[in-house]
Amino acid sequence: MILGIGCDIVHIPRIRALLHRSRDASAGPSRVFCDKRAINFARRIFGTDELEAFRKRFILADGEVDERTVTLFLAGRFAVKESSYKALRPHYALDWSDVNIVSENGI
Fold first, then answer.
1. What does pTM read for this prediction?
2. For a designed S-S bond to 96, which of 45, 58, 67, 78 qualifies (C-beta 3.0 to 4.6 A apart)?
3. What angle do CA 107, 71, 24 make, to 5 degrees?
């Protein structure tokens, strides 16, 4: 049964600005970007499994993690959650963590 259809478009610069609010803009892009702002944003919108995937992919990463990759990951997950909320809003009251996005490889 289809309860609704949801669609969402995320403006990537808006997510990037949200993640940069407390950073010094003159410092330029950070090569290792999983700072406090990105982690706090992830904690607000992700469920337990998603937080674990985020942690494996970005926080425990062996190499450098660039800002663009983290921003796109967070924006994409946010868009899916927002569209799910829009589709199910009349029928269910959802929190961000109620919708979990899990990829096949778990990351």
1. 0.76
2. 45
3. 135
